[in-house]
Amino acid sequence: MLKTAVTVLALVVALPFAVMAQRHPGYLHALSDLRYARALLEHGDWGRVGPDRERAIGEIDRAVEELRRAAMDDGRNPDAHPPVQDRWAPRDRLHRAEEALGRAREAITREEDNPAAREWRDRAFRHIDDARRAVRHAIEGWR
Q1: How many domains does the chain have?
Q2: pTM of the prediction?
Q3: Cα angle 79-84-86, degrees, rounded to a multiple of 5
Q4: pLDDT tens by residue, 42-88
């Protein structure tokens, strides 16, 4: 009896997250792209574009928080991301980060019917755009 109750409870707790993931797969894709962009910017010698890099990372972190709220927190480790090639030069990392940020923004453009989630998503748009501006500024500064 206890085993059945625990199983039912686990299903009841997990169901809202599964439903949200089905309703908003774009948020989960965006979170993955944001984590990847952040990982690209984390390591390396950034020289004079270091402040732009720091600003971009801060905006990415804020966008992740907004999207986690909108997606009811996907429960993933925010430091989990696809592997980053150590051999990539900082300029290449900047370009790849900018591409990942563009994919993240595109992934959340779908119409949002939940007013609270819409507010979080819209704030995430602003943070992603600010991160992209910082990365573009760093790309220009790297030349």
Answers
A1: 1
A2: 0.74
A3: 125
A4: 887 888 999 999 999 999 999 999 988 887 654 555 555 667 777 78
> What token pair was written down for 112?
């949002």
Residue 1 burial class via C-beta count within 10 angstroms: exposed 0-12, middle 13-18, buried 19 and up: exposed
Consecutive H or E run containing 109 = none
Contacts 24+ apart (CB under 8 A), 49-58: 49/90, 49/94, 49/137, 49/138, 49/141, 49/142, 52/134, 52/135, 52/137, 52/138, 52/141, 53/134, 53/138, 55/130, 55/131, 55/134, 56/97, 56/131, 56/132, 56/134, 56/135, 56/138, 57/131
CATH number of the structural domain spanning residue 52: 1.20.1260
Structural domain span for residue 15 = 2-142
